[in-house]
UniProtKB/TrEMBL annotation:
Species this protein is from: Paenibacillus wynnii
Name of the protein in question: ATP synthase subunit J
Keyword Membrane attributed: yes
Entry keyword set: Cell membrane, Ion transport, Membrane, Potassium, Potassium transport, Transmembrane, Transmembrane helix, Transport
Parts of the chain that traverse the membrane: 21-41, 83-106, 137-158, 199-224, 236-255, 301-333, 354-375, 409-433
Subcellular location: Cell membrane
Gene Ontology molecular function: any one: potassium:chloride symporter activity
Amino acid sequence: MVSPLSKISKFSFLKLSPPKILVFGFAAIILIGSLLLMLPISNTTGHSLKFIDAVFTATSATCVTGLVVRDTGTFFTTFGQTVIMFLIQIGGLGFMTMATLFALVLRRKISLRDRLILQEAMNQNSMEGIVRLIRRVLIYSLVIEGTAAVLLSIRWAFDMPLGRAIYFGIFHAVSLFNNAGFDLFGEYRSLTGYVSDPLVNIVMMVLIIMGGIGFIVMADLVEYKKTRRLSLHSKVVLFMTAVLILVGALVIFVFEFTNQRTLGPLNFGGKVLASFFQSVTPRTAGANTVDIAGLRQASQFFMVILMFIGASPGSTGGGIKTTTFTIMIAAVISMLRGREDIVMFRYRLAQERIFKALTITLLALLLVISVSMVLSTTEDHNFLMILFETTSAFATVGLSMGLTPELSFIGKILISLTMFSGRLGILTLAYAIGRKQGKPLYKYPEGKMIIG
């Protein structure tokens, strides 16, 4: 019997390159999710949801973003919410990871082509150990989400019936670990009702961080007792993640300390907890414990920067990624010091890595700026709100200053496409659209020009 992956590979469209396969795969999942969400049983009104709203919601869930045009907790029924939860899980782990799960359960062989697609999906440099990594991804996800679901269920059992508490625990564990911002509390409140709750805040932050550092880093940490070493990738991710969280918490704490719409009414402990949560959540999570629209403009713009940087490669999050940002910073430092090589943790980076980081950053900037400019003409809101929304969509964050439910038809299409681009990755989408050139057979003479 042929494995599910091998059967799929026989279709003509899968004879395309791995980047194109990923594009078609995610698009197919979004379409199926949209059709399910359009069913009358998916919402509380008993009528079919508009196609554009269904596509927007399915895209937001599959791309693990969390921007919503309809309130998840009050508009969708349990069936609709379950569809959204499964879309989040499939989108967070990747449809090829889920297909591999079925192949492993059925004890079927993973073909070479399937491994190539998995390599592209997991953003790996080689196919070596890719199936072993997928197994770990599935195990880590199950353990982390299961543990968080139990803890959250116990906590919420004090506030609601046990069955509802368990359901809430499972939904939010899946949503937050996959760095999606969907919640079931209704009225677009997110987690504002638990701003000073230590257990909810800590569990949610751990979920966001674990989902954001990536499965490669998780595997390195699990194996550390045996190997007593971490890869350069893991060192950079852990270091930059810690720096961004600490700096972000400090900036938000200082800027919002006296703001009566956010941290002002809280005690000192609540202020610290809320500052850390609002620093962690822009790492593509989308949940919030204070009113984002109530933040001062300095805080909102700073969160735009955090969202743009995003999570880490091989994770459930988006953005240009922490490693890309680190390479750009390291390149600037090396240039200022007059050094030709970029060295991090006693390792020299290949020139190809630097060019890739520069390409990703510039393409991401171009996308965010272009979409923001178009939205500024189609949406009647201030530019910071539009920039915040666009960056949130690109980085698959899900935070909003209140613009999402008021988006026009064109705005919904643009934000949906931005979420799709952000989840797949700028380079993957570029490779899928264009044709990747081979190495040139000759070199042009070196030229010189003045810079700066």
